[in-house]
Design brief:
This protein is an alpha+beta fold. About 50% of the residues lie in helices and about 20% in strands.
Amino acid sequence: MVSALAAAPGVAPLGGAPAPARLPPLRDDLTLLPGPPTPDGAPTWTLHDPAANRWFRVGWLEMEVLTRWPLGTAESIAAAIGRDTTIAATPEEVEEVARFLMGSGLLRPQGPAGTEALLRQSAARRLSPAMWLLKNYLFIRIPLVRPDRLLGWLAPRLSFLFTPAFLALVLLVALAGGVLVGRQWDSFLHGFPHLFTPEGVLTAGAALFASKALHEMAHGLTAKRFGCRVPTMGVALLVLWPVMYTDTSEAWRLTSRRQRLAIGAAGMAAELALAAFATLAWVFMPDGPLRSALFVLATSTWVITLAVNLSPFMRFDGYYLLSDLLDVANLQDRAFALGRWSLRERLFGFGEPPPEAFAPRLRRLLVAYAWFTWAYRFFLFLGIAILVYHLFFKLLGIFMFAVEIWWFILRPVMAELKGWAERRDAYRLNRRTAGTLAGLGLLLLAVLVPWPGRVAAPALVQPVGQAVLFAPRGAQVAAVHAREGERLAAGQPVITLASPELDYHEAANRARLAALQAQIAGQNTSTDLAQDTPVLESGLRQVAATLAGLAAERARLVLRAPADLVLDDLPDALRPGSWVQDREPLATLRSRGRMQAVAYVPEAAVARLSPGAGARFVPEDLSLPPVPLRLASIAATATRDLDEAELASTHGGPIAARQLPDNRLVADGAVYRLVLLPAGDAALPDRAVRGEVVVEAASESVLTRAWRTALGVLIREMGF
């Protein structure tokens, strides 16, 4: 079963000498323990390396080799195995075991040559501080406590937690809590907004810490209950985010798969039990910090635990549970090897044997697991790369982003491509190779050939003539001169606003103007004061200019129709005496009859559009038919302001936007405004309708589009 073990690459064969080569002795501190049987009933053993706290699962042949290791040579060991057992062992198989033991550091070097080989292996594994940081900063373990003695004291005293009676109690508490919370469901849901307050954040943090501490204690207690040593507990930095961990690696010594499953599931079971008790306690607690903490324990903590720990694609609880359920040690390494083999055979049909022999059903499952894990890790590491980019200042963020993409995404792909290249002598023209070449050709065709394109964009149907009247400043409504639906002439007053602040400044400046005029008039009677006349006249001109500005500002308080339009929308709350904010929309005026569609597209799509292009408007209201359009105009510059509030996400529209304190709606990214008119005799709806326009765009290959997008992002992000 050496195939289940990760034999170190690059270890030279021990055979090949004219005389039988002496094998280095085994280390004295190694322990060989009974292991669980394989699915077909074959016995296994577990080899423990206490120095590195590593565990190796070995099969019958490997165990027979280890027990006869003192014989000294591969030939002697193979002969003894063939004489004493039914295994037909060969010296080459013994040397394969020896290479594995040497590569794993389980042999004691003998003489200068052995010491030199050990030093070479150690130097090959040793990393520079920079390389170590690059490889390990995503996950750094910091041991904090040695809990084995405490867990040994607690385990017998908390043995009732592992009884069927306690499980029945937890289920009963969960049922009672669920029923009682259902009767106060509205009050229960009101606890969520509290989590986003400063007090709620502190409460959630304390509850999360308590639940995770209980999670790790449950792992440790369960492992101790089954006789395993728990050497350390501590904190691991996962992408610089602290998470607790418990070292339960001694679970590998257990022969019972049920016991290993219990250790793996103990943390999640403990948090679910805690959530059940917290739910019931929340019902009876008065409002306060303790009830908030119980709310967090009843909702957030166990959901986060299940979402993270149940995933089998990373080495959390779910991974080890799946490994034990399938009874496949080193699940990811072995599944990945099988997945790579399956990929090569499907693409090229090399005809190579699989790296390990599994039952057909299990082999298909492991291959599917490998492929799903690769896809999961691709998106996960891509997200982590983006995260580390934003965590650091720009230059370091760009460097760390490149490192993440190379180390975790491109490097494994390049290694697999290198493996394909090394098999160039094995390529044959067969059905699978022909299919791969055909698929590659179609892919290149799809990427390189310019395809007729279309650009889809959110749109709103509105009259060609439209205006929105905004308050020029915070003011009070003095008069409303028109009614909704009334036809207005260009320049006709619609709303008059009043500003007490403006009145105050105007009165103060008029008083100052009168005082200056009086001073100038008085200087005509005194030659001593005549020399101050230029200063007073300068002040007089400043006050006159200020009054002129105030008059212009007062004129802006009279909101007039910009053209011959109809008052289409006037809020009921807009009445004399009411107050309005700066830039608040007060009324909408539209023309009657001719309609247009207004759409917004991102910057990357503008280069492919040109006025006169055909388009199609698809209304959100499916009872309305699509309407053919033509692209009338494209804005010359990008903008982030959205004049059509119906398209903003704050008003239920499809464009991500936010409302600023001055009531302006701005999109999250720069967009270009398109205006589209009906084509031919087509007619748009005679009312505001939201939908989507699909505009014919210039032909462009996928590669060109990707290159332009990547170049735009690079130019944008390289601006320091």
